[in-house]
Design goal:
2 domains, 12 strands, five-stranded mixed β-sheet, Aldehyde Oxidoreductase, domain 4, alpha+beta, single chain, four-stranded mixed β-sheet
Length: 326
């Protein structure tokens, strides 16, 4: 960075976000009269944790827990914690009532006892050489720890490093020869949780927004800038080019604003174009979204399509509470 001809910098924030899954947390449990066995009916993102938490609550072995796995009703990270407290609620009530019990949290309970996407602050710097090429990248992230709230065992196994919070800060597909990332813990005491995309959601918002600002300062098209950075990633270039063609990128649209983003997440490459208009001050209307993905091997077509279908609604709502601090 010290040898860069030009250094640009910016700061961003991503606030707490509630999962707002379609169904509040719920489960059905039927504990045997002797309290030595239980049958569960629930949706969970972590079947092993559901069985383990239930066994601990009753003081029984795992083989005495039968789990009937149901549709989630929306999870996004909220139904996968190690303690699975909403399931344990049903188990303990069933034990006391000596009958099958269905627990359904009210929406108020769901919010009051929520575990939120952590608040984070980001400081980023970019170093450009004399030709304008991006040659250095520095991303410093400060935020609440996530993994201790979702899985303390995993946190300890990882050497007490929060890889969930840090996810997304490394720009693997982009040809940036010098990258430096930092993580600073700033624990607020708020219960936290992964939220769809985990750390990628906030970190990618930061990186892609900053890249747009760099492109603007260089006076080049944002898509062309991504293609320049993806010179060594044929898959990445193909995704970007395909989505840009789908959206007819470059066609003037009076009264509308276009945004572009690319992400490399655990082997899957994706790009998107968002088109919006501002019918009046303070109002934003989402007009169109175009998406494309080069999935990692083994991704099912149905699951992939569901992810792509659900992404615009959730990403647009969460992005509305992220902040560019200038």
């Amino acid at each position: 960075m010290a040898r860069a001809a030009t250094v640009l910098e910016a700061t961003y924030r991503a606030d707490f976000a509630y999962h707002a899954q379609m169904e509040p947390l719920n489960a059905v449990a039927s504990v045997s009269p002797a309290g030595d066995a239980v049958e569960l009916w629930c949706g969970t993102q972590n079947q092993s944790a559901a069985v383990d938490a239930t066994a601990r609550a009753l003081g029984i072995t795992r083989d005495r827990v039968k789990l009937n796995y149901l549709l989630l009703g929306g999870g996004f990270g909220r139904r996968g914690h190690a303690d699975e407290e909403f399931i344990v609620d049903a188990v303990l009530l069933s034990k006391e009532a000596r009958a099958a019990v269905k627990v359904l949290w009210t929406r108020g309970d769901d919010i009051r006892n929520g575990r939120f996407r952590p608040i984070t602050a980001h400081y980023v710097r970019a170093g450009l050489d004399a030709s304008g090429k991006l040659v250095a990248w520095h991303h410093r992230l400060a935020g609440d720890r996530v993994t201790p709230f979702s899985d303390m065992g995993l946190y300890e196994l990882g050497g007490r490093k929060d890889f969930i919070l840090m996810a997304g800060v490394d720009l693997d597909s982009y040809d940036i020869p010098n990258q430096w990332t930092e993580l600073l813990y700033r624990d607020t005491g708020v219960r936290t949780s992964p939220l769809r995309g985990v750390g990628f959601a906030a970190s990618t918002f930061v990186a892609e927004t900053f890249l747009d600002e760099i492109a603007q300062k260089r006076g080049i098209d944002p898509v062309q800038f991504r293609l320049e950075l993806l010179r060594n990633s044929p898959r990445g270039r193909k995704v970007v080019e395909t989505v840009a063609t789908m959206a007819n990128w470059g066609r003037p649209r009076e009264g509308r604003a276009l945004g572009f983003a690319f992400v490399d997440m655990v082997g899957g490459l994706a790009a998107g174009v968002h088109i919006e208009s501002h019918p009046q001050p303070g109002r934003i209307r989402n007009d169109q979204d175009f998406q494309g993905e080069s999935a990692s091997p083994g991704s099912g077509e149905g699951a992939l399509r569901s992810q792509l279908d659900g992404t615009p609604a959730m990403s647009n709502s969460v992005a509305a509470i992220n902040r560019d601090d200038g």
